[in-house]
């Protein structure tokens, strides 16, 4: 039988443990390790251990803002070897994030080289990049060597590392933080440094300040990538409870290309959004026809100019519709969920705004107190030494004799202590004093230094004895941080919900020429797309129409104005000018019935633009039979695209013109056969929308009203006939008459000129736009058209090839603060008295 093996028999007591209990204990230990030592920031300095160790290591390496940069591999290696025994990639990722200006509102590290991009491009390898502390990052380490914070042994107990940084800046609030622990997560938003510092100062002045009071200083989150926050409800919830959701949208502008196309340009995107994936998502939506009206998407961003994501629209695309689809289906609109979770005394807590501010102030109180105690101790120690030196210098001969007579240094120190009642540090300083310090000048310096130290000692003691003065020091330092590193807010906060966004604020103010054809096609084209031409030119093609179509109406208005369409049947419709489809000079446009609910028998015969609906402004309408009617613009606020009655017309009559008036103006009614009646607007009382109107002008048989003009002292009337002849006439040529009279001659109509088809009030420095039935247009300076008498036939403005005829005329309004510049390469045509294109005047009737 084999002998018993020599296997040792276990000794001691075996304690049975349920496996679920052991797993539970181990998992809790692991969870607490992740929470405390990895994933959550400390409320005092706003840093996780990895970031704190990196900054501390950079300080130890001397990488301050005025120093040269060092390789990131050196920084990572030093931190990993001394303080953070984890993977080098996780350390480098943390270092890179602290250097990215799109990740941190105020970067703590100044990087040199490729540190990644908004497209989620990876940074270059750590052997290629270099870094040092930024100025704000250096402020995190200020006074670290003055015993302001506790130090603890590192993992190997060979080095000491700080448990927290002094943090002169409120880093947790200005840069935020994010992290996922076990069973909890934090996602804190960055804020503006100036606003946070003001809130800190307000709390120092009044520790009982409320959250509402602090919100008067901190407007809301301020993301490094800008954007627009809509609504304040989520901000208030986050500040009061520590949790809340805010809606962030990218910022954009509307641009018009040289070809006349509109494009949406995003120059800011929501925080944390990957720009490359965002553009890919938009591209997929365009390809799969999830979004209509987009021709292409392009990323024109550069480091120098910032973000520029261009979304070019197709002709006729409605901007609002495209934007709504983009915001609803892409990260151009994102929700940022705020969770203000941080470590307070080693325990995770969800904090409101006041608590975040108060814990930072408490930390600074402790730091400044310990710094002051350190400075006081050092000052007292130095003063103690100086007092001994002063005693020695006052008795220098005796001191020298004692030292010379002593056998060694220890004996000399003992005799000096006994003779002058000095301490050990004082006698050591005396013995080590150089002979050069014995001059009278050096003695004076020592006495002056001692006097200054005594003042400092008194100041430090007073500071430590008075908490109010100590907090004022913190307040002054906070203000200094704000003035040195503060900047303007990047993220705009808009009151109200998303639905209240005014898209018009993002559309450039621009003069547009609006044309309507006989078959109902409407478009708007920037006036800048038309070049000036000389009087008498043939014009350029303004619209390619079908053979049986021709341009009937032309009108010029700003993109931000309301434009009201009034039909021949007396119904009114309105839109904003920028809501009309934009086209090129030669495009046909969109049919008016796709925009307005116009019946088959209705034609647009009058167009009026105005800035707002008001009881102080009126629409004065005129019909072909000379009937006029005045209605307040506020009466039409509900018209929109479905339309409401503007005037009740007699059978066979139709509306031909409408005018915006102020209620007390004089107006001129002009007929097709050359008659003009100047009368006062007061003669026409305001009526309701369903009213019939009153007789405005008495017309001869076969004559019709062609237009209405408002009398203005600094304007003249410009008259245009069917076959391109026109002139300017002074309003003063006409005397005022009562309503219902025939008026005076304004133009001599003949076969060569045709009847009057257009009239407009103009200033000398303005330009006009006229268009023919076949779509040819001409833009020219008003000054090129002569001022003539009432019966003159005028000069040739537009050369007409029959059967074409002039169908429309309007003025181009110039901004007063930006006078129109003459287009490059165009010629002016000054008029001479013997201009051959002028038609001689006939005697007045």
TrEMBL record:
One of its GO terms (molecular function) is ATP binding. Residues 816-845 are annotated as: Disordered. SMART domains: TOP4c. It catalyses: ATP-dependent breakage, passage and rejoining of double-stranded DNA. The active site is at 128 (o-(5'-phospho-dna)-tyrosine intermediate). GO terms for biological process: DNA topological change; DNA-templated DNA replication. Its EC number is 5.6.2.2. The keyword NAD does not apply. This is DNA gyrase subunit A. It comes from Leadbettera azotonutricia (strain ATCC BAA-888 / DSM 13862 / ZAS-9) (Treponema azotonutricium).
């Amino acid at each position: 039988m084999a002998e018993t093996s020599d296997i040792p028999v276990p000794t001691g007591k075996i304690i049975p443990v349920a496996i679920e209990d052991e797993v539970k204990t181990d998992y809790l230990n692991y969870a607490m390790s992740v929470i405390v030592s990895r994933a959550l920031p400390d409320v005092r300095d706003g840093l996780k251990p990895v970031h704190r160790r990196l900054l501390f290591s950079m300080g130890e390496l001397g990488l301050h803002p005025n120093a040269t940069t060092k390789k990131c591999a050196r920084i990572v290696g030093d931190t990993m070897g001394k303080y953070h025994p984890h993977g080098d990639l996780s350390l480098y990722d943390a270092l890179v994030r602290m250097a990215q200006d799109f990740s941190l509102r105020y970067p703590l590290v100044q990087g040199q080289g490729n540190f990644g991009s908004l497209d989620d491009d990876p940074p270059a390898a750590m052997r290629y990049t270099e870094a040092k502390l930024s100025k704000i990052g250096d402020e995190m380490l200020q006074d670290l060597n003055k015993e302001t914070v506790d130090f603890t042994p590192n993992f190997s107990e060979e080095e000491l590392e700080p448990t927290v940084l002094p943090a002169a800046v409120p880093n947790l609030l200005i840069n935020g933080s994010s992290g996922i622990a076990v069973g909890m997560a934090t996602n804190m938003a960055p804020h503006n440094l100036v606003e946070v510092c003001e809130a800190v100062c307000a709390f120092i002045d009044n520790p009982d300040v409320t959250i509402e009071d602090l919100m008067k200083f901190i407007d809301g989150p301020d993301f490094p990538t800008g954007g627009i926050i809509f609504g304040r409800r989520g901000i208030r919830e986050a500040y009061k409870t520590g949790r809340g959701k805010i809606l962030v949208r990218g910022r954009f502008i509307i641009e018009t290309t040289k070809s006349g196309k509109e494009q949406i340009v995003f120059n800011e995107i929501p925080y944390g959004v990957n720009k490359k994936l965002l553009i890919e998502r938009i591209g997929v939506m365009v390809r799969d026809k999830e979004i209509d009206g987009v021709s292409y998407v392009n990323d024109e961003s550069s480091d120098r100019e910032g973000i520029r994501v261009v979304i070019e629209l197709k002709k006729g695309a409605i901007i609002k519709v495209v934007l709504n689809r983009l915001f609803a289906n892409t990260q151009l609109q994102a929700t940022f969920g705020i969770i203000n979770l941080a470590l307070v005394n080693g325990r995770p807590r969800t904090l409101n705004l006041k608590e975040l501010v108060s814990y930072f102030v408490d930390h600074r109180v402790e730091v400044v107190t310990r710094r002051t105690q350190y400075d006081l101790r050092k000052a007292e120690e130095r003063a103690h030494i100086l007092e001994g030196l002063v005693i020695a210098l006052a008795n220098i001969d005796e001191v020298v004799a004692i030292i010379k007579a002593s056998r060694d240094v220890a004996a000399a120190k003992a005799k000096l202590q006994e003779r002058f009642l000095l301490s050990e540090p004082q006698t050591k300083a005396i013995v080590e004093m150089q002979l050069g310090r014995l001059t009278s000048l050096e003695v004076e310096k020592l006495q002056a230094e001692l006097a200054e130290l005594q003042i400092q000692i008194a100041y430090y003691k007073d500071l430590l004895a008075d908490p109010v003065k100590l907090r004022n020091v913190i307040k002054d330092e906070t203000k200094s941080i704000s003035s040195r590193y503060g900047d303007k807010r990047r993220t705009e906060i808009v009151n109200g919900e998303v639905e209240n966004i005014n898209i018009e604020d993002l559309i450039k103010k621009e003069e547009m020429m609006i044309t309507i054809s006989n078959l109902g096609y409407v478009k708007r084209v920037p006036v800048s797309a038309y070049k000036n031409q000389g009087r008498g030119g043939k014009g350029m093609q303004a619209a390619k129409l079908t053979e049986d179509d021709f341009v009937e109406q032309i009108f010029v208005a700003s993109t931000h104005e309301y434009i009201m369409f009034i039909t021949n049947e007396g119904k009114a419709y309105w839109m904003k000018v920028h809501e009309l489809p934009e086209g090129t000079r030669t495009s046909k446009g969109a049919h008016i019935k796709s925009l307005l609910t116009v019946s088959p028998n209705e034609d647009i015969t009058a167009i009026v633009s105005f800035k707002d609906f008001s009881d102080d402004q009126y629409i004065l309408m005129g019909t072909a039979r000379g009937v006029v009617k005045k209605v307040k613009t506020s009466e039409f606020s509900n018209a929109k695209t479905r339309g409401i009655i503007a005037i009740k017309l007699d059978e066979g009559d139709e509306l031909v013109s409408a005018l915006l008036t102020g209620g007390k103006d004089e107006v001129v009614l002009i007929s097709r056969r050359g008659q003009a009646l100047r009368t006062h607007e007061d003669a026409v009382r305001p009526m309701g929308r369903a009213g019939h109107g009153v007789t405005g002008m008495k017309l001869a048989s076969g004559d019709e009203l062609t237009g209405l003009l408002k009398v203005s002292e600094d304007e003249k009337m410009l008259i245009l006939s069917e076959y391109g002849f026109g002139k300017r006439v002074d309003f003063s040529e006409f005397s005022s008459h009562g309503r219902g009279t025939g008026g005076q001659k304004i133009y001599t109509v003949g076969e060569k000129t045709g009847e009057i088809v257009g009239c407009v009030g103009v200033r000398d420095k303005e330009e006009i736009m006229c268009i023919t039935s076949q779509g040819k247009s001409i833009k020219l300076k008003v000054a090129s058209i002569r001022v003539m008498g009432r019966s003159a036939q005028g000069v040739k403005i537009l050369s007409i090839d029959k059967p074409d005829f002039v169908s429309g005329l309007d003025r181009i309004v110039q901004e007063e603060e930006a006078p129109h510049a003459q287009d490059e390469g165009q010629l002016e045509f000054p008029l001479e008295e013997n201009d051959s294109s002028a038609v001689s005047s006939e005697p007045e009737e």
